[in-house]
Specification:
The structure is a homodimer of 393-residue chains. With 393 residues, the first copy, chain A, is α/β, with parallel strands linked by helices. Chain A has a single domain, classed as Type I PLP-dependent aspartate aminotransferase-like (Major domain) (Aspartate Aminotransferase, domain 2). Chain A is 42% helix and 12% strand. Chain A has 11 helices and 10 strands. In chain A, strand 3, helix 6 and strand 4 form a beta-alpha-beta unit. At the A-B interface, helix 3, strand 1, helix 5, helix 8 and helix 9 of A face helix 3, strand 1, helix 5, helix 8 and helix 9 of B. Strand 1 of chain A pairs antiparallel with strand 1 of chain B, so a sheet runs across the interface. Chains A, B: Its cofactor is pyridoxal 5'-phosphate. Chains A, B: InterPro entries: Alliinase_C, Alliinase_N_sf, Ethylene_sulfur-biosynth, PyrdxlP-dep_Trfase, PyrdxlP-dep_Trfase_major, PyrdxlP-dep_Trfase_small. Chains A, B: Belongs to the alliinase family. Chains A, B: GO terms for molecular function: carbon-sulfur lyase activity; transaminase activity.
Chain lengths: 393, 393
Amino acid sequence: MANFMSICTMRNLLVLSLALNLSLIMRVFYEGEKHGPRGFSAQKADRALEKAAHATQRTLVSLSSSGQDDGEKLINLDHGDPTMYESYWQQMGEKTTVVIPGWQSMSYFSDVKNPCWFLEPEFAKQVVRLHNLVGNAVTEGRQIVVGTGSSQLFLAALYALAPKDASEPISVISAAPFYSSYPSMTDYLKSGLYKWAGDARSFDKEGPYIELVTSPNNPDGFVRHSMVNRTGGILVHDLAYYWPQYTPISSAADHDLTLFTVSKATGHAGTRIGWALVKDPEVAKKMIKFIELSTIGVSRDSQLRAARILEVIINSSQNPGGPESGESFFKISYHFMAERWQLLREAVNKGRFFSLPDFQQGFCQFLNQLSHGSNVKTKAWKIAKAYSEVIRF
Amino acid sequence: MANFMSICTMRNLLVLSLALNLSLIMRVFYEGEKHGPRGFSAQKADRALEKAAHATQRTLVSLSSSGQDDGEKLINLDHGDPTMYESYWQQMGEKTTVVIPGWQSMSYFSDVKNPCWFLEPEFAKQVVRLHNLVGNAVTEGRQIVVGTGSSQLFLAALYALAPKDASEPISVISAAPFYSSYPSMTDYLKSGLYKWAGDARSFDKEGPYIELVTSPNNPDGFVRHSMVNRTGGILVHDLAYYWPQYTPISSAADHDLTLFTVSKATGHAGTRIGWALVKDPEVAKKMIKFIELSTIGVSRDSQLRAARILEVIINSSQNPGGPESGESFFKISYHFMAERWQLLREAVNKGRFFSLPDFQQGFCQFLNQLSHGSNVKTKAWKIAKAYSEVIRF
């Protein structure tokens, strides 16, 4: 009991210290460079923390306008949301707009000749063009499978790769630290096909397994490779962040099953569009079956919108600064992320309890320059998330 | 063996006869009233059947334009697709169009104040208006949960209603004939939470169960009520076809958990938007959690489009024939379905192997008239589907 109390006291102290750090970071983020970080007190930080706990789990809450909070600003750190890209898309104007008349795309079917019958041909075309341009993934000899975000494709992959008549569910693993939703997404339906088996580093069970390789990794931003290399291992590569604004593009990924999502590539999280590049047609067929059974296809409206967005990005990269094409999306985003990361780094350096990893620079084939070898955006928001989790214990 | 052979011969004969019927129906559907049904031969019908078997599983295939098929027309009967509504939406013109600029709806979140944080407020508003206008469902005291089609909501309901710590999965049942995808949708992930247990009429297992009540029923079009009334029973009402064009609206449905879908209500299958009306906030919360875990929300673009479509339907019903509102969607659709149903009935009556059920007329509160008490469209396509299944054995 005494031990428990001493832990509690230590934790209370830690909460207080974290609150101070948090408050400082909030101020840096919100007051901006113009005013610089202002003074703060432990009481203020405590109040900020209390308010944050009561705020909705999902939003970026700014209380300063209410005039009741001594000018404090609160960030809810539970979730990321790529709204920072909005300003770019606003600047790009009408060329990004989609117009959908009431009689279009009424059918369930987008392309009856494609095994993935719910894949919009225009979206598929732009996905191939974008990968060819950026050089981040091989599309040749791959079936594109579109999904309602990459979450659905992750589940579709588990379904497709798990043996259907095994005596026990196949183990699903990933090297820690891993995307915090992997365990619950894998286990929420208590499937008899697959089961979360934790950290790939300590995985020693015999038999087949599925290893999730997220690179750059969520949450820590490091480039990742498979950790377990055993017979019967099947790899799923989640390359959601393998874009020039987050990490240097070193080569075209050439894996069996690779996941991407519009949310992270362009910031359009609300469209819920992801795609998988799948080498084995039989695996692709099973993923397609999964999407048939779970949602009978994928929003055609969102696919059409995503196609337009990708096309605009391609044009902006091919003819940057042109009157029709606008500023290069990847270049602008890269600089924007670097700036944010620097702000975070400055803020964290002023505290005592946290440090940020240093990433080596790498040569980006796409940007044709040495670029920060860091998953800038991810880390900015994921480290913030880590703060939040520590605070909540 | 002899017995097997005689069954085979009987089956071959049946195939031939069915082919004749099928060919006739195709002709009636495709040649239309203008030319009337033309003569046909068993050989032609056989060829038509063979071609149908080779045609894609998912499309309505017309071969007449190729000039290589003696003017035959083929229908693939595996799947329905509500493209027949296209002509109405074309006539409605620009008022049905949605315009989505590139910077809109980028965030994951549609409404952070709503427990269903991915529900577009405008879509929710039009859903309530439409139900109030049509009088087919009580919306008061219900949480609206939007889904990627009603399929996702069906799965979300199973997840929400199944006990999480039971010793065995809860039984999921429905009275035969039931929607043909129910068993595979329930069992494809071998969930430990729920399990398909077949026909509700013969269900005699003790303990809790989930009964799916589809009304009007898919595939037979009859109005349905719960078949099993035992302690521990939980009902899910799938009212996808409870709209004036399919069945008389007798009263506002007032159930615990009711599913609807835009696909059947308006014909916009490609938008993949459905909604649930849920009485118990805790059940709604679990359904929302399911959608978070499976797709992190629902396409905002499609919700915005669906909201516009529903708004146009409401206007067309409130001010039918007005210069701004256009012809009443439900009235036009009702007559269109009745006409199709009559064509099918005439065709089937000319054959010998099939009959169609007669439905009593009922008073439709919405159309304010006696209307055909039949789920006209559903049956037209589902009976065709039954043909297909018999032919395939």
